[in-house]
Amino acid sequence: MITFEGVNKEYWLNRKRSIKALKNVNFNVNEGEFISIIGPSGSGKSTFLALASLLDKQTSGEIVIDGKKTSHLNDGERTNLRYNLCGFIFQFASLLPALPVIDNIMLPLLLRGEKRSLLEKKAKNILIQVGLTEEHASHLPYQLSGGEQRRVAVARALLKDPPLLFADEPTSALDEDTARDLIHLFHKINDRGTTIIMVTHDKDLAQEGTGLYEIKAGKLTSIMV
Amino acid sequence: MKIAVQLAWKIIKEKRKRAFLLAVSTSVAALLLFTSYFFIHSLNTSMTAIDGRLGADVIVVPSGMGMYAGENVLSSSVSKVYLDEKEVMGKLNNIEDIKEISPQLFLHTISTSCCGTDGDFPVIAFDPANDFTLKSFMPGIQQLEADEVVIGVNAGGDRFLYHYDDEIIKEKVKLFFEPFHVKNILFPTGTSADETIFMRLDKARQLIHNVDALAHISSTDLSAIFINTTPHNELFVKQQIERDISGVDVVLGSGLRSKIEKQMLPLKLLSYVMIVVSLLLTLLQVITLFSALIRERQKEIGMLFALGVLKRHVYQLLLCEAAIVSFIGSSIGVLVSLSVLYDRQTLLYMIFQLPLVFPDLKTTLFISFFTVSTITICTIIAALFPLQSFFSREPYEVVREGES
Ligand SMILES: Nc1ncnc2c1ncn2[C@@H]1O[C@H](COP(=O)(O)OP(=O)(O)O)[C@@H](O)[C@H]1O
Ligand SMILES: [Mg+2]
């Protein structure tokens, strides 16, 4: 599904200084897997996830997604690939504060020209799947708790049925029970065939996937489960 | 596009405070733009009107009176010497290069009280149908009735101004033992017309028979004939008149037209500068405001990129927001300045003492439309500036930068 071949990522702080956030990363994930990635903060986990989901460009090396080499794609092609294949759940609050929950969930598809009337029912269904109610649909983000907001973000990622789901520390800032519920939800999604790559610092949660990797100072290593 | 407008509208409604500042700045800009455009338009209309007759090209007066000939009315020092209409008009009509002929007859200077103003006012008769010397100082002067007069600002006109747009109050003045209604006042002309009372020539000729003080005037007498010629033929016409008609002085107009135009130029330039400056200010203001707004919302924007929304759709959404706010803001600005301008029309006449001709409804609508669309387009252009920094950037970069 996704393959990294000798991928490097370098952030330039100014003309002379740079940070090597990823160093010669080789990685492969197959369809239907649930990969967890752990590592200390600043080690390059978010960077790795951003590259894998085409949110950012590698400095060198090749990333192959769904059989397509991505290094030479232009901005529009990358955006379309991301739209069609990837769902992304951010580490932080990521909803548009001015729009109600239902609009937030449908936003990417609405802007692509899909009909609101066709989407609305599906969106409300997904809202229930992620453990919210139809009543939440008209709430504004600030009227929800942190855990509920995270669920809305999950619902937004799921609406277009992406084959790939990326989650960057989805349980950060959530209490233990809420975190457990969310991971439970991920497993349900994974059971339906969605490939999941999740960054976490919770070692226990990380054990539950089909694969576990660790990043240290930009180097990715597989940990046998 | 429709969905972008819907979403943008939702966002604006929810974040009213954020939109407010942008709306205020666009409405101030619209107010400035509308007002200056409005004045320029008024000035231009007035100029065209003034052009029509401000200063005749050639003035024919009785022999010896040439030195007293005024630009658009008889000067007050007219004596009791007259031209004979029968003799003069026929010959003038035969001169090809004459475009317009407007005769005037000085009747008498009367001491009276007009609209509560006491003074000595020359009474002059003119022919409304053929007049080109006064018409631009008073819209509708052609419809002057026999029992109506028009007065200059200094002949009580300034008082009349206070109820200028009040149809019900009708001032009356008694002239030669007959009552007349004051139909209207002339805009200030800066000439002796400002002290004068005007009536119809045919009415005046009726009076001649009944009033002793006017008995010396015969029914074909005229005091002066104002003539407009085809362009650049003033001198030629003057020579022809001098050749064909004896017993008259022929005087050339002094080019009052170009003089006035020169006087108006700074005012016009000022208005144009105001327009340009107000547009530039709007642009700058909107760029500044929008840059701040965009910076504040950078994470949101990066997030949209990350969710696979095409950049152009993101821009569409944000530009819709800017356009809607700016449209509302500038519409309010236009409405405010419209209501002020029209509500205080009389006040403005008094302040400017200028023949401001207010635009008609169609033109006003056009100016409003022009203002609103200009400001809205400017806002969209201005909003593009801060957005343009995202053109070539990766979503992750935008999000991370917007986070901190
Ligand atoms: N946009 C950036 N510019 C400069 N340095 C960056 C940028 N993004 C990340 N880094 C650096 O790259 C390293 C890896 O960051 P990140 O992938 O966010 O780590 P993690 O998610 O594991 O905490 C860190 O040292 C961070 O400071
Ligand atoms: Mg991180």
Automatic annotation (TrEMBL), chain A:
Alphabetical keyword list: ATP-binding, Nucleotide-binding, Transport
Keyword match Transport: yes
GO molecular function per UniProt: ATP binding; ATP hydrolysis activity; transmembrane transporter activity
UniProt entry tagged with the keyword Disulfide bond: no
Parts forming coiled coils: none
InterPro entries documented for this protein: AAA+_ATPase, ABC_transporter-like_ATP-bd, ABC_transporter-like_CS, ABC_transpr_LolD-like, MacB-like_ATP-bd, P-loop_NTPase
Pfam families: ABC_tran
Domain ABC transporter: 2-225
Signal peptide per UniProt: none
GO cellular component labels: plasma membrane
PANTHER family linked to this entry: ABC TRANSPORTER ABCH.1, IMPORT ATP-BINDING PROTEIN
Protein name (database record): ABC transporter domain-containing protein
Organism in which the protein naturally occurs: Anaerobacillus arseniciselenatis
Upper classification of the organism: Bacteria, Bacillati, Bacillota, Bacilli, Bacillales
From TrEMBL, chain B:
Gene Ontology CC annotation, any one: plasma membrane
Coiled-coil region list: none
Domain ABC3 transporter permease C-terminal: 273-384
TM region positions: 20-40, 269-294, 315-342, 365-387
Annotated compartments: Cell membrane
Keyword Transmembrane: yes
Protein family: Belongs to the ABC-4 integral membrane protein family. HrtB subfamily.
Physiological role: Part of the ABC transporter complex hrt involved in hemin import. Responsible for the translocation of the substrate across the membrane.
Subunit structure of this chain's protein: The complex is composed of two ATP-binding proteins (HrtA), two transmembrane proteins (HrtB) and a solute-binding protein.
Name this protein carries in UniProt: Putative hemin transport system permease protein HrtB
